[in-house]
């Protein structure tokens, strides 16, 4: 039985590339070049290079025998190689991907838009998340090392220099990798870092938007839509409540037995073989407690590090999925079951009592 017979009940989906756009004019030019005796470089190649240069408004152009050769030459001229990433569309010729491998770079593919052959540009941001993960890690490194505290102690001067050097090199590395996607931002970062000295007037790269100013502009451009949105927000504010079943009353003495404190998550990892659990190391005053919580769907382990949270400290230790948990992180839950960590409104020290 043939494959066609086996698949006769399955709707066919044919994906085609456009046929080459070749007219009699191109065919005649190729024939003339072959009759000239020059089948590689020669007068016709030089003529084409001059016309391409004129068309592009540049001094010179180089014609190669294929797009594959041109793409690989471009990557090598730009210095792209091992340790770099190159993003291209998943719907393309293999040559577009193979040249990336030829130069030793990492290939990153992005799918096409729905009903289109173009790259899905909304997914482009996902392809550069690794770069921003580096910047996030730098932020966490600052929280972990507390350079402002190191600066107060003369005997820790060497450690401070190491921390600042690590931050400087990491941010420089991230800025350079960001250049192909956000060239102006990359330039600003590198310009402010300079040779490692503090700039006189540091520039804020991504200033926070003023909500009132944003809403004014929205109202100017879309007055009716802004009015509807405002009305929806007001209605939503009135409706955003949940009623839950009341539990039996407890005495003040019973409540007093529970110890709530602010904790800072200094490390977090996923619990193996669990789809819901994260295991956090939480600093509460001078002690560190290990707490397992079922919030993996809402937070990644990386997001958890550095957060200030509210903790039920004196909960009896128990094992969850074989991992010891020594407390509970307080969360709120909406009607759909989504969880949100309870965090102090103001910056409170780890260990602060909640009453």
Describe the structure.
Helix 9 (157-178) runs antiparallel to helix 10 and helix 11 (211-221) crosses helix 12. With 355 residues, the protein is of the alpha+beta class. It has helices at residues 3-6, 24-35, 43-56, 67-77, 94-102, 124-127, 129-145, 147-150, 157-178, 183-193, 211-221, 223-239, 252-256, 301-304, and strands spanning 85-89, 106-110, 260-270, 278-284, 287-293, 308-312, 318-320, 323-325, 328-329, 331-333, 339-341, 353-354. Strands 3, 4, 5, 6, 9 and 12 form a six-stranded antiparallel β-sheet that branches. It has a two-stranded parallel ribbon with strand order 1-2. A two-stranded antiparallel sheet has the order 7-8.
Task: Spell out the key features of this protein.
two-stranded parallel sheet; 14 helices; 6-stranded antiparallel sheet; elongated; alpha+beta; 355 residues; 12 strands
């Amino acid at each position: 039985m043939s494959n066609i017979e086996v698949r006769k009940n399955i709707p066919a989906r044919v994906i085609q590339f456009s046929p080459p756009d070749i007219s009699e004019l191109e065919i005649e030019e190729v024939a003339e070049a072959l009759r000239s005796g020059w089948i590689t470089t020669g007068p016709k190649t030089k003529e084409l290079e001059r016309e391409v240069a004129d068309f592009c408004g540049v001094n010179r152009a180089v014609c190669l025998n294929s797009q594959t050769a041109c793409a690989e030459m471009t990557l090598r001229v730009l210095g792209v190689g091992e340790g770099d990433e190159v993003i291209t569309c998943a719907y393309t010729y293999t040559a577009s991907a193979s040249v990336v491998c030829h130069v030793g770079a990492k290939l990153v593919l992005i799918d096409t838009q729905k009903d289109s052959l173009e790259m899905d540009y909304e997914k482009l941001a996902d392809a550069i998340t690794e770069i921003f993960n580096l910047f996030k890690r730098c932020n966490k490194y600052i929280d972990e090392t507390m350079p402002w505290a190191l600066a107060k102690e003369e005997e820790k001067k060497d450690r401070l220099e190491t921390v600042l050097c690590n931050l400087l090199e990491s941010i420089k590395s991230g800025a350079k990798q960001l250049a192909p996607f956000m060239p102006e931002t990359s330039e600003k970062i590198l310009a402010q870092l300079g040779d490692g000295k503090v700039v006189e007037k540091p520039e804020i790269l991504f200033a926070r938007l003023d909500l009132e100013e944003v809403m004014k502009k929205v109202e100017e451009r879309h007055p009716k839509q802004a009015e509807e949105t405002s009305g929806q927000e007001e209605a939503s504010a009135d409706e955003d409540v949940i009623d839950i079943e009341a539990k039996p009353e407890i005495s003040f003495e019973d409540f007093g037995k529970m110890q709530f404190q602010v904790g800072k998550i200094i490390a977090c990892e996923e619990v193996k073989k669990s789809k819901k659990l994260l295991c956090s190391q939480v600093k509460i005053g001078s002690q560190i407690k290990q707490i397992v919580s079922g919030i993996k769907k809402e937070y990644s382990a990386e997001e958890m590090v550095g957060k200030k949270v509210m903790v039920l400290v004196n909960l009896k230790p128990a094992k969850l999925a074989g991992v010891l948990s020594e407390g509970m992180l307080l969360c709120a839950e909406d009607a759909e079951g989504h969880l949100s960590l309870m965090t102090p409104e103001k910056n409170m020290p780890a260990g602060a009592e909640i009453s």
